[in-house]
Amino acid sequence: MTGKVIVSASDAITAKLVEEAEFDGIWISGFEASARLGLADNGSITMTEMLNIARPIIEAVKLPVWVDVDTGYGNFQRTVREFERIGAEGICVQDDIPHKKNNSLWGGKSELMGVSEFAKKIKVKRNRIKIVARTESIIRGYGKREANKRLNAYLQDGGADILLPHVRNIDDILSISNYEDRIYAIVPTKFPACTNEGLFNHGYKMVIWANQTERVKIKATRECLKSLKDFDSAEFIEKNLSATLEDMRGLTPED
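Now predict its structure.
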């Protein structure tokens, strides 16, 4: 596996734009998906809701689609089976205690599942879907040694395909023990100046830009709405902010 750049998409049109830009895959973020439903990112979203978001995205593109399933929606064996059924390339599950209390990018210290308990949880029957095992140990304040212990167990005992140490400090990116026989992923949300190439050079095999597309939409929509109010028409939007109707039509099926 060479280095892959995976970009978030919370709907089919965004996914088609990621594909058009020739990235390597789609990431369906639990944070983005929850926000679009008006929910907090604290385990409120259900598996059924996430399946309903993921299905049209998977059907719209040829790129592999990876889905963030938070702590796995209870019965993890069933979660694997359902996302495998709709054609997801892989799912990412984290070692917070179900249900997680908050998004770890700004949440404080909270309890994690036991190492062996989580390794047993992710060792499930599957055909082709891949498991991304994500540890919150650094971001939740348990330290780098604990993170490396957990990642090793999730690989050796849990059979994870990809390991994801979640961090929000740039120094922690470089602290994980990298080995050539391990596939590491990273979500560099808090350090946007890091380059994909630089992360690949450090040993990460998958870089996930997990929420940039949705945040761009928020800013652009605010600007659109402000101009509609300021100019009392959509003329400025059409000339300066908007894709054409033909462009939008081209991103939808012909029938």
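The chain has a mean pLDDT of 93.
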